[in-house]
């Protein structure tokens, strides 16, 4: 390679590869925390880019393209990959170099893809990822021969190992410094026919036979694990136990951290009370800002634990197994096996869940999944549930080792899941009864140990998103609620609590008649309005309303305030309401974006609202009948 | 569409969709006739090929689901792929 000093432009490299090739791990290893997530213009596909400075100081911009088996593009995600690679995107030129990532232990499909990519005519580099695992298993790859036969330079890497990307980095450095990174041949790519695909695979298999030696036995660890984890009975039991452990962990592990955060905010409130003179400013800081934002931030540990489980399961390779186990069960409810992954993500947040439905290529299956995803208990409901459960449900042991509180929580999650299945079954029956069921085909990757750094990075991105939300949406809603609850000020000599004279009280009382049949009082009515912005805001809003109402000597603990002011029936009705309530403006916005229609957004909104009202109504009246009113 | 299936006598040929767990063999042909999945015949064939189901590939049925022994997890050369028996009907094996 000639050491020509190139122009000053930043090089743009693109990572492309089949699903499970370890492309994202490699992306994380190359770019570290210098990542940006945005959207491609006009579509809702995530555009992940990162910066890399090579050893000789060249700046390289790396884009991580959605995984695909072919440039044929069967889904919006894959269309993005195709359009970027072919330079069809108006906003960006074709990348200077395509880094085709392949799993060294499983080369067949990747080699066919790279043979197809050669026709695009852009500079190519094949990265044999997970080379460490391949070596350990006794897979021998003659990279020189492989490179010669493919006509593409080859470099090995182990994204999850420290120092595992050194060869790749020095190769990238050389390539980035090269002036002559020009398209090597005339592009003559066209969507491959079955004949093209067959011929490509035959050629790939021929090259593998020449350049790769596989051990006699496949990965024994994966085989042994799958004997249990994919077992028709034990596999399902394991999946259920796993889900149960996951939710118990969310509640028990998070507690010490939550206590710490709570104590911190209490201390902050105490400081404000001690040093800021009584009056509007003190009330704003203490009741509006600190108690409002604090009551939401306290749930960060629970959300992170939930995401930790999801990220680990994904990196381990278990998610595809879960889809396999659940396919027929979900199929009975009119859902696709692949919907399991988006729906499981929806336990964290419906927004990534709905975006993850892009892996479902059939439009109707995808729509059904989008419609029911908000019914899965997202982490924003955790604050509401935890607060009410802690205030009303005694934590006595059941059957010796389960806590009653944990069981109620599990019940709420189960209610969400069961209603999601029921709604999708009804949707299937009502809207598309006669439609054929699309195929379920999915690679089951070998199990892999997750890379701690990659998991930590995923968690960091989630925490950042949550904190940004708490700092913007939730904060501004809290200021609004505080304002509504504080103005107008009570007249001189007023005897009732100040809040009774406020706008919040007026609005709350206006809506109250609508909500009275389900046992909600006017304070709840007030809290539900900002709760439209995000569910967890309702908790903070209740905190603000009750803390202003009670005056400064009132209970500091919002849970105690609720226990004193609500009946058990109201509390249970509120829990039932939150299983279904469509209270998340961002989810509705994402549904609108992903379905490209207002219609499905409103369908979601109204069906969930109707279910929420009915469920709360039934719960309230049953509870009252049992004497809990 | 491939016609390789014509070379073998019918008695030797199995459909992967009907094969029991533990079945080992190799792919004789991909012949998509049924389009119950709502995909074009050609499209289903392309997807099967993209997942590595090509003539000559080694096949073993490793696992099957609890309900109706469906879906199945199939070892195709060095990779494992999950699919439903209905789609596996398009794969002729010997």
Automatic annotation (TrEMBL), chain B:
Gene3D superfamilies the UniProt entry points to: 2.30.30.90
Residue ranges crossing the lipid bilayer per the database entry: none
Keywords: Iron
Superkingdom as given in the UniProt entry: Bacteria
Ranges where the Ferrous iron transporter FeoA-like domain occurs: 14-94
GO molecular function: transition metal ion binding
Protein name stated in the entry: Ferrous iron transport protein A
Organism phylogeny: Bacteria, Pseudomonadati, Pseudomonadota, Alphaproteobacteria, Hyphomicrobiales
């Amino acid at each position: 390679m000639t050491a020509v000093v190139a122009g000053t432009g930043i090089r743009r490299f693109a990572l492309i590869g089949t699903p499970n090739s370890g492309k994202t791990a490699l992306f994380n290893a190359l770019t570290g925390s210098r990542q940006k997530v945005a959207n491609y213009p006009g579509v809702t596909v995530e555009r992940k880019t990162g910066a890399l400075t090579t050893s000789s100081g060249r700046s390289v911009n790396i884009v991580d393209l959605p995984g695909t088996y072919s440039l044929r593009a069967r889904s919006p995600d894959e269309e993005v990959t195709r359009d970027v690679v072919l330079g069809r995107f108006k906003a960006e030129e074709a990348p200077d170099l395509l880094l085709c990532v392949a799993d060294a232990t499983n080369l067949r499909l990747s080699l066919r893809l790279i043979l197809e990519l050669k026709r695009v005519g852009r500079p190519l580099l094949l990265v044999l990822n997970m080379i460490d695992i391949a070596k350990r298993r006794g897979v021998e790859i003659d990279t020189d021969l492989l490179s010669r036969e493919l006509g593409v330079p080859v470099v090995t890497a182990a994204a999850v190992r420290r120092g595992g990307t050194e060869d790749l980095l020095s190769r990238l450095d050389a390539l980035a410094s090269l002036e002559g990174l020009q398209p090597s041949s005339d592009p003559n790519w066209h969507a491959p026919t079955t004949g093209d695909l067959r011929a490509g695979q035959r050629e790939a298999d021929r090259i593998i036979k020449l350049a790769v030696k596989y051990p006699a036995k496949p990965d024994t660890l994966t085989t042994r694990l799958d004997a249990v984890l994919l077992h028709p009975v034990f596999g399902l039991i394991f999946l259920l136990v796993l889900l149960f452990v996951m939710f118990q962990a969310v509640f028990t592990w998070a507690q010490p951290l939550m206590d710490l955060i709570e104590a911190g905010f209490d201390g902050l409130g105490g400081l404000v009370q001690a040093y800021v003179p009584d009056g509007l400013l003190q009330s704003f800081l203490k009741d509006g800002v600190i108690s409002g934002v604090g009551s939401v931030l306290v749930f960060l540990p629970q959300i992170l634990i939930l995401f930790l489980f999801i990220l680990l399961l994904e990196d381990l390779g278990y998610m595809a197994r879960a889809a396999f186990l659940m396919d027929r069960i979900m199929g009975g409810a009119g859902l696709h096996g692949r919907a399991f992954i988006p729906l499981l993500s929806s336990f964290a947040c419906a927004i990534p869940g709905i975006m993850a439905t892009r892996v479902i290529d059939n439009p109707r299956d995808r729509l059904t999944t989008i419609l029911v995803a908000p019914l899965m208990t997202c982490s924003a409901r955790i604050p509401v549930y935890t607060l009410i459960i802690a205030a009303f449900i005694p934590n006595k042991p059941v059957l010796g080792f389960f806590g009653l509180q944990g069981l109620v929580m599990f019940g709420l999650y189960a209610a969400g899941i069961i209603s999601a299945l029921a709604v999708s079954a009804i949707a299937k029956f009502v809207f598309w009864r006669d439609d054929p069921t699309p195929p379920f085909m999915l690679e089951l990757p070998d199990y892999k140990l997750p890379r701690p750094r990659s998991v930590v990075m995923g968690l960091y991105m989630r925490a950042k998103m949550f904190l940004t939300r708490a700092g913007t949406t939730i904060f501004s809603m809290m200021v609004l609620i505080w304002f509504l609850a504080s103005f107008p000020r009570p007249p001189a000599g007023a005897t009732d609590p100040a809040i009774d004279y406020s706008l919040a009280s007026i609005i709350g009382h206006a809506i109250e008649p609508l909500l009275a049949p389900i046992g909600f009082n006017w304070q709840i009515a007030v809290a539900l309005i900002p709760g439209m912005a995000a569910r967890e805001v309702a908790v903070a809003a209740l905190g603000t309303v009750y803390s202003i109402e009670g005056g400064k000597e009132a209970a500091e603990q919002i849970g105690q305030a609720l226990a004193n002011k609500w009946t058990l029936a109201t509390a249970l009705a509120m829990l039932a309401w939150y299983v279904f309530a469509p209270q998340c403006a961002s989810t509705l916005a994402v549904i609108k974006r992903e379905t490209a229609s207002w219609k499905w957004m409103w369908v979601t909104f109204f069906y969930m609202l109707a279910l929420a009202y009915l469920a709360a109504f039934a719960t309230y009246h049953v509870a009252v009948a049992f004497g809990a009113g | 569409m491939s016609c390789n299936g014509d070379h073998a006598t019918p008695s030797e040929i199995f459909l992967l969709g009907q094969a029991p767990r533990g079945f080992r063999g190799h792919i004789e042909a991909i012949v998509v006739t049924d389009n119950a999945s709502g995909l074009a015949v050609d499209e289903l064939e392309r997807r099967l090929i993209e997942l590595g189901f090509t003539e000559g590939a080694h096949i073993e049925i490793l696992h099957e689901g609890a309900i109706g022994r469906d879906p199945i997890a199939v070892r195709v050369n060095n990779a494992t792929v999950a699919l439903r028996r209905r789609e596996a009907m398009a794969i002729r094996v010997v």
